[in-house]
Design goal:
Elements (H helix, E strand, L loop, with lengths): L8 H25 L5 H27 L23 H24 L4 H27 L36 H27 L3 H26 L25 H25 L3 H27 L12 H5 L2
Helix pairs in contact: 1-2, 1-3, 2-4, 3-4, 5-6, 5-7, 7-8
Length: 334
């Protein structure tokens, strides 16, 4: 595959999304670095800052070579590192572990959907980096005795086959136990909502706009409801391994917000898309009808909440438009 080939739509979109995402993480972790206390977590944060800085440069160089406008993304002006902290060190590392899974999914899709050799190599390097980052995060979590592992179960002793449609039941009659796959999805959805709830609590404390503050408060209430929903499903099976991050949101003492409303709203829109994607996969891989109905309902609810966030971004002129095809009149003058 020639390096002179034009970028495909898939390659442009993955590079654009990666630039915006890495700019968000780079600047957010710069704020984390300004107040982190634990030395192990500090080294991890420093690595992420260094890596994302290089990523941003790599993407920008490709855009300039291809005569594609470099995205604005998130800039240092969106983050104030000269103020007090909003979250604990424990939150930083749990958030970071969840972030690695999100990035793995993005870069894996980017790799398999890219055709140009240099772009495939770029995203393969990102995946290789993430392997090391994830191992480092796992080691830190273990050393701090922070448990974010899915539950254990005792499996049955022989292979079994589905005998009738009762396997899919979830409302009436005898309902089977959750499968390991269903437990996994419930656990990780519970965890991601615990993280989202903490973020929304922190964001709502420092947002300057009343409308945006109310939006974050609503997001925190939804996340709290979903944490309880997933927990209840697991508790009925006598499975309880939830993690609460409520106490990891600190009382903020700074005069100026550490994060701009623009930053926090864009980050929340990212979270919304991540959540909808997770619920879609969970729906597809769950076979009990009560679970599929639950995930379908959550997709609709989060979708409506996400639309409100997008409206707020548009009203404030903060929603950056991804690359669109050039108009014919523009092409005629090139």
């Amino acid at each position: 595959m020639s390096l002179n080939d034009k970028l495909t739509t898939a390659e442009i979109s993955h590079l654009w999304n990666s630039y915006v995402f890495d700019s968000l993480i780079h600047n957010l972790f710069s704020y984390f670095l300004s107040n982190v206390e634990d030395e192990d977590i500090k080294k991890y944060i420093e690595y992420v800052i260094s890596a994302t800085k290089q990523h941003i440069t790599d993407y920008a160089n490709i855009f300039m070579e291809e005569c594609i406008p470099v995205p604005r993304g998130i800039l240092p002006e969106d983050v104030n590192t000269n103020t007090s902290r909003l979250f604990s060190d424990k939150f930083y590392i749990v958030y970071g572990e969840n972030l690695v899974k999100f990035a793995f999914n993005n870069f894996a899709f980017a790799y398999v959907e890219s055709n140009r050799e240099d772009i495939r190599k770029l995203f393969k390097e990102r995946i290789d980096e993430l392997k090391e980052v994830h191992q480092n995060v796992i080691n830190i979590l273990a050393s701090k005795d922070i448990n974010v592992k899915p539950p254990y179960i005792d499996t049955r002793s022989k292979i079994e086959f589905v005998e009738n449609n009762d396997f899919f039941a979830g409302y009436l009659g005898e309902i089977r136990n959750l499968s390991s796959l269903e437990i996994k999805h419930l656990f990780y959805n519970q965890l991601s909502n615990s993280i989202g709830k903490a973020l929304m609590a922190g964001f709502s404390r420092v947002a300057s706009s009343r409308e945006i503050k109310d939006y974050f408060t609503k997001g925190g209430e939804m996340a709290d409801k979903y944490v309880k929903l997933f927990s209840d499903k697991l508790l009925k099976e006598e499975i309880s391994q939830s993690i609460s991050l409520d106490s990891e949101v600190l009382t903020y003492s700074g005069e100026k917000s550490p994060l701009s409303d623009r930053f926090m709203l864009n980050h929340t829109v990212f979270l919304n898309s991540f959540g909808i994607g997770n619920y879609g996969i969970s729906l597809a891989q769950s076979q009990r009808r009560d679970l599929t109905a639950m995930y379908g309902k959550l997709i609709v609810e989060v979708g409506l909440y996400a639309n409100k966030g997008v409206d707020l971004l548009i009203n404030n002129k903060w929603l950056e438009q991804p690359p669109l095809p050039a108009r014919k009149k523009e092409l005629a003058h090139r």
